[in-house]
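Q: I'm building a small set of examples for a reading group on sequence design. Run inverse folding on the following structure and report the sequence directly after it, with nothing in between.
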């Protein structure tokens, strides 16, 4: 089985229930055709880089999965016939370096990495008084 990532953007006019049914539909397409879903990442509503079909925003989803190459044609066919999909992409991870990156992305999506330190800690360090050098001449 090959490693894949697919991202698709749903229309912003859909209600939460419709969004969930669309997501479940595409997950089902993957699993019914022999694919194994590793994780699904809900990226939420975001602004689009440019207007697509008179929409300025879209609801983003990313699915990381393992599958046979024949599944991709079926998945793309379903994306194309669904009117609620604004854009989609399927990425294949082939060589070992890419596969390692794929695994890293899956781990990040599953574990939710800790946030980076805030700027407040850096400011505290900057406001502390400097120690005077004992070798200074008086």
């Amino acid at each position: 089985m090959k490693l894949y990532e697919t991202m698709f953007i749903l229309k912003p006019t859909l209600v939460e229930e419709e969004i969930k049914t669309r997501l479940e539909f595409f997950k089902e397409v993957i699993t019914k055709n022999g694919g194994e879903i590793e994780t699904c990442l809900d990226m939420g509503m975001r602004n689009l880089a440019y207007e697509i079909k008179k929409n300025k925003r879209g609801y983003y989803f990313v699915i990381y999965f393992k599958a046979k190459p024949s599944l991709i044609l079926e998945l793309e066919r379903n994306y194309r016939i669904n009117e609620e999909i604004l854009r989609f992409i399927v990425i294949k991870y082939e060589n070992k370096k890419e596969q390692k990156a794929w695994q890293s992305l899956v781990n990040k999506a599953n574990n939710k990495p800790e946030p980076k330190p805030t700027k407040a800690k850096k400011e505290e360090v900057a406001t502390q008084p400097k120690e005077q050098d004992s070798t200074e001449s008086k």
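The chain has a mean pLDDT of 82.
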